[in-house]
Specification:
This protein is mostly helical. It has one domain (23-213). The chain has helices at residues 2-46, 67-85, 92-109, 123-151, 157-186, 193-212; strands spanning 217-220, 228-230. The longest helix is centred in the first third of the chain and has 45 residues, at 2-46. Pfam families: DUF998.
Length: 235
């Protein structure tokens, strides 16, 4: 009995020590996502060389203020990585968040080519493209899987409706983006690829930001417990 009491008190003490870490990861996530949104929006405003309806965000790296695109991708990656640290015990969904964060980092390091170079891409464009597609698909699956998982958990009740709506919307947006990309590469070349991408990334960012405000799941409980520690909305 005494040993059980000590173990329980140790778990409680560990939880309270981890609360500041949960709050820090939430702040870091939201800061990263805010930087991403502001960087992409400002890039569209100050870089007047391309049409945002037609051209993807990554193409803007080739314009005078192209560094904004790099900053936005780095913010996206950092915010997602911080969110992944909050989701201990979320299985493969957490792993896919880490995969997206890594792909966003690679996409930031290897810039896209200027528009009109589909048939002869540079090495940087090829790496950027593969990272982007792998990352976007991974994030789409992560959002669907984590939404389904968290909807069943009481701690996520206040976020469940919003996460579900954004998950459905981003899934539809992903399909439309794939269709627009196929058209831009092989068919009529008239689909609004840039707009489709911006809608998709905007919905992704909204879902990630909402998820970052949810309860932090910092570490697994001791053996024999039912699940990870949940630090609550304050974390």
């Amino acid at each position: 009995m005494a040993q059980t009491q000590v173990t329980h008190e140790d778990d409680v003490a560990e939880r309270h020590r981890n609360l500041p870490l949960g709050a820090m990861s939430r702040t870091f996530s939201l800061t990263g996502f805010t930087i991403a949104i502001l960087s992409f929006v400002v890039s569209d405003m100050v870089n007047q060389g391309y049409d945002p309806v037609d051209e993807t965000i990554s193409r803007y790296v080739n314009l005078p203020h192209g560094w904004l695109v790099t900053v936005g991708l780095l913010g996206f990656a950092a915010g997602t990585a911080a969110l992944a640290t909050r989701t201990a015990g979320s299985g493969w969904g957490r792993g896919l968040l880490w995969l997206w964060a890594g792909c966003a980092l690679v996409a930031a390091i290897f810039p896209a080519d200027p528009p009109g170079n589909w048939s002869n891409p540079s090495l940087a464009e090829s790496v950027h493209g593969v990272a982007a597609w792998v990352g976007l698909l991974a994030l789409a699956i992560a959002i669907a899987g984590l939404t389904l998982r968290w909807r069943r958990e009481p701690a996520w009740a206040s976020k469940a409706r919003g996460l579900t709506v954004l998950a459905w919307a981003s899934s539809v947006a992903f399909v439309l983006f794939v269709v627009a990309m196929a058209d831009a590469m092989a068919f009529t070349h008239t689909a609004p690829l840039g707009l489709a991408e911006r809608v998709l990334l905007g919905l992704y960012l909204l879902w990630l930001a909402l998820a970052a405000t949810g309860p932090a799941r910092i570490r697994p409980l001791a053996a024999g417990s039912e699940g990870p520690v949940t630090a609550g909305d304050r974390a």
